[in-house]
Each structure stands twice: as structure tokens, then as C-alpha cells.
Amino acid sequence: MNKTNSGVALVTGASSGIGRATAKALQKAGFRVFGTSRRAAAESSDGITMLACDVTDDASVAKIVDDVLAEAGRIDLLVNNAGIGLFGGAEESSTAQAKSLFDVNVFGVFRMTNAVLPTMRRQGTGRIVNLSSVQGFIPAPYFALYASTKHAVEGYSESLDHELRPFGIRVVLVEPAYTRTSFEDNLARPDQLLGIYDAARAGMTVTVRKAMEKGDAPEVVAETVLKAATDPAPKRRYAAGKMARQVSFLRRFVPESAFDKSLRKQNGLPV
To answer: Do residues 50 and 25 lie in contact, with contact meaning Cβ atoms separated by under 8 Å?
Structure first.
């Protein structure tokens, strides 16, 4: 693929935030971009073809891939961006709520990936970019279940990459820190609140809001996705933004006890 025809990209969760910025960055770089959203959106906007897809539904996922192939004939890049958040003490969520979270953030990635792999294998080439988070490799108090989904995506992605290299397919991770999107406003809340966590949860709410205000613009993450998608010698992980790079460095090189103390301090928890 040349610079003006970089291939066909499919981006999930592309109606707003990181997904929308990513779709635009890929389109600008020469990709023919298909974006998905849970609800029907404008058929085409800014050169991006939007289609409805529910990543928790096998039939919906199969249809979206079939529709893209019918129109474009191939899929060179899949960006698994669709996801939801959950904020609260881990004990405050039912098993059913945890399963719903994993169904989107983990099994949604699994469904989309499995759906495009036959095509990518036939092509003998393909790139899958999975949106993770710094919470995929550090502790995340009051985001324990969300962080668990990102840890799962990290393990899945790195393992899958080794399996798919013989077919010319690579799987890479993009790890943002706080990003200025509507993520905070759309966070799910626990379905069985416990008063014992009220004070700590309220404190963390303030901490998260302040961090989001200082977070990176979605375009910073989008440019990292573009790099991950086009890097001729892809790395396993791409930190998106200054904070993400700092956290990654500290996690690798700072002693565990010191990192633990710093994390609790940053989150307003007793040290």
C-alpha cells in the first residue's frame, strides 16, 4: 500500500473520543476507514464510513466484517477501541456486572479479532491494534474490574501476536493514560454500593476529575495508534502521551515498594 492508499481500516467505537480521532487520523494518512458505533450513525462523515455494530453480539460482529469486505474487498487494519469503564470498589459490583464489563472490553476484542483473522490470513498480511491503558499494567484502586479487563487484553494481545506472526499478521497494544474524552461522564457505577467505601470513592472521584482535566487530547492517542498501525517493525506496546511514557518507565524501573507508595499518594489514599 502506498501513502495515498494505505489500506482498509476498521475502527470500533469510532463515534467519539479516541475512536473518532483515530478514524480521522487514519483517513488523513490514506486509509479507507470504516468506523463502528453501537447505534446507527451517519453512513459517511468526513470520509469515514460509519456502520452500526454491537461488539457483544456475534451476529452483529460477523455482519460488520462481511459488510466491509463486500464494499472494500479486504481489511488491513483492525483497531479494537470500543470499551466501557466502571468506577467503584471491586466489592461493590455483582458478578453479572463484571461479566457485562468483560463482555465488551475483552470478549468484544476477541470477537472482532476472530472475525477478521480469516481474511487477514488469506491476504498474508494484517495489523491489529488493541487499545489498552496504563491500567493494563499498574494497579488501579476503584477501577479494579476495569483494570482487570485491560490486563486481560494485554495478555491476550501479546500471546496472540506470537501465534499470528507466521501468517504476516501483527498484534500490538496502545496504552494511553488519562485522556480528555467523555469517558468519565460515561463511567458505569457499581450495582451494589456499600457505604463503607463512600468517602474513599468520593475522594477518588475528585482525583480522577482533576487528572482528566490535565489529560492528553484524543488526537495524541490517535497519532500513537497511527504509528502502531504503520510501523514497519512494530513494537509490542506503544505508550500514548507523556504521562503514559512516565508511568511505563516508573513501573519498570522503580522498586515495588516505592512505586506502591507513590501510587497511593497520587490517588489520595493513605500511605
So the answer is: no
> pLDDT tens across 16-26, in order?
999 999 999 99
Which one of 15, 133, 148, 248 is the catalytic residue? Answer: 15
pLDDT digit string, tens, across residues 27-62? 999 999 999 998 766 555 578 999 999 999 999 999
Which class would CATH give 7-266? alpha beta
268: left (phi over 0), alpha (psi -120 to 50) or beta: left
**Residue 211 grid coordinates:** 487528572
Task: Specify the pTM.
Answer: 0.94
- Is 146 catalytic? The answer is yes
Q: HSE-up of 52 (CA within 13 Å, CB side)?
A: 6
Identified catalytic residue from 132, 133, 148, 157: 132
Please say if 197 is a catalytic residue: no
Angle between the 218-230 and 17-28 helix axes, to the nearest 10 degrees?
Answer: 50
User: Burial level of 184, CB count in 10 A (0-12/13-18/19+)?
Assistant: middle
Instruction: Cell numbers for 224, please give them.
Output: 500513537
